[in-house]
Amino acid sequence: MTEAVLSAETVFAPVRSQTAFEETVERLGTAIKLGLLPPGTRLPAERELCRRLGIARSTLRQALTALTQSGHVFATRGRRGGTFVSDPQPPAAPASPDMLARWRETCDRRLAVELGVALLAAERAQPADLLALDELETALEDSLEDFSAYRQTDIRLHVGLAEAADSPALVRAMTEVQGAMTDLIAYIAHPPQVLASSNAQHRRLLAAVRERDALRAVKAMTEHLQGTEHVLAGLLPGR
User: Which CATH number fits domain 97-235: 3.40.1370.10, 2.40.30.20, 1.20.120.530, 3.40.720.10?
Assistant: First the structure.
């Protein structure tokens, strides 16, 4: 979903996506940045918000936790409690206008590289490749509270997939797009809920690669990259 098509009427329209958690983060985060949900706005009650968005309560709570930890909303208790839109906070580091203007182009370049990697890795991965990838996935699961360690391992996993594809050119391309993504995601918060969702997608991807199901690997990679794009759209500072 882009800013151009987001209106007050669509903020709480049903989420129709395989990446419901990430799309909910994008929907609410973008609405807050555009001022459609101004500071101090109280969000609808959980039951009502789940009904309107068409998502499970667990998905909503994960998305609200991510938005709370990124500073977009805050929760209070009591008779007048609820979830409210926070006053805008300045980003931890000044965002590059050029990078923000081209963030979708960066995601598109990554998509082109990683889908080819997923397909070829499913066809060509050797047992040693699969063992190394499984070890990296386990290390990611142990790093959900430490984004720096998580990101380093995440890069190794994606480059490892390119190595499993047995294509030096794709390894180089993967390294380049991972570097560009690292620069981009430095501008957003990384709550453990976002990392856990990302790693669940990693597991589905690796399962498809292990079973040599190229089409399912491409589908899993597509959902993974779309999930990242939703989170960026929702949490990047004003673009």
Answer: 1.20.120.530
